[in-house]
Amino acid sequence: MNPRMDRDAKLTRVVAMVGLGILIGVFPLAGQECSGLDPESGYPIAVTLEASEAEEGILAASVARVAAYRWRVPSRRRNAHRGWEQVRERILPPEPRWADDWEPEERHRAVMRFVLFRGGDTRLLEVESSSGDDRFDESLETILEEPMPGGPDWPELAASDSVVVIMRFGDPRAAGALVRFAAEQTPVELNRNSMWVQPRRQLPRSASATVKYDVLAGGLVEPRSIEVLRSDSPDLTDAIVDALRMARFQPATSNCRPISQSVVQTFGN
């Protein structure tokens, strides 16, 4: 590698990554086993409906699952990745996940009531029993108004034009349809020296790009999943795509098994 290419490669190596599968917990070291893992310890969301008895069970379970994957859970660094909200498609992990830079505490409990209309529109009624953590409490409304990109749509109503949904966050004793976040998760990690971004020409030091891609459970990137969300250099973009095709990763894990996960990464400054 010539000195110019070497400088550019270093310039455009990994700056940061953030998983987009709604990203919990204390991360075990690579290779650590979870022999005593209790999946029932994952953070719960419980849903009940003011709806007809015939519709309530199946619909409540579907609403709970959709809400968990739509939730823009708290994150301290997500917005550092300019353009991340432009993601069109992402992998929904087998269990919803917390942002890798945030996890809930015992105090993070709340109750939210909203109306779900036929066709998927919603209207917030109130947020009760707030946790007192502004970052957490304010994030709840994103389920309705600013969901994670690539999140699922609300289920269709079959028996009524609208239903009132009651969601209880963080209460393991709450009645209703329950969905749990992963009790254990680890993030995607790049294998050392497996990825070098090498532009064909010298780039300005300010060159940067934000890219979304999917790391499969086997540790490879699915080439068709690559989305360029923002870039100020076509040469940098081409080099990133080439590098991702060759890169090798330790895949994300959820409840002690490797999973596929969508990643947003910023390259450059």
- End-to-end separation: 22 Å
The profile of the biggest β sheet is: 5 strands, antiparallel
Figure out the total of helices.
Answer: 5
Number of domains: 2
Structural class: alpha+beta
Report the helical percentage: 10-25%
Characterise this structure:
With 269 residues, this protein is of the alpha+beta class. The protein folds into 2 domains: 3-32 and 186-268, Fusion Protein Consisting Of Minor Coat Protein, Glycine Rich Linker, Tola, And A His Tag, Chain: A, Domain 2 (2-Layer Sandwich), CATH 3.30.1150; 39-85 and 99-181. The chain is 19% helix and 27% strand. The protein has helices at 3-11, 53-70, 134-139, 142-145, 234-246, and strands at residues 14-19, 44-50, 110-117, 122-128, 162-169, 177-180, 185-186, 189-190, 208-215, 227-231, 249-250, 252-254, 257-259, 261-268. Strands 4-3-5-2-6 form a 5-stranded antiparallel β-sheet, with helices on one face. It has a 4-stranded antiparallel β-sheet with strand order 1-14-9-10, covered by helices on one side. Strand 12 (252-254) and strand 13 (257-259) form a beta hairpin. It is elongated and about 65 Å long. It starts with a helix and ends with a strand. Residues 1-32 have low confidence and may be disordered.
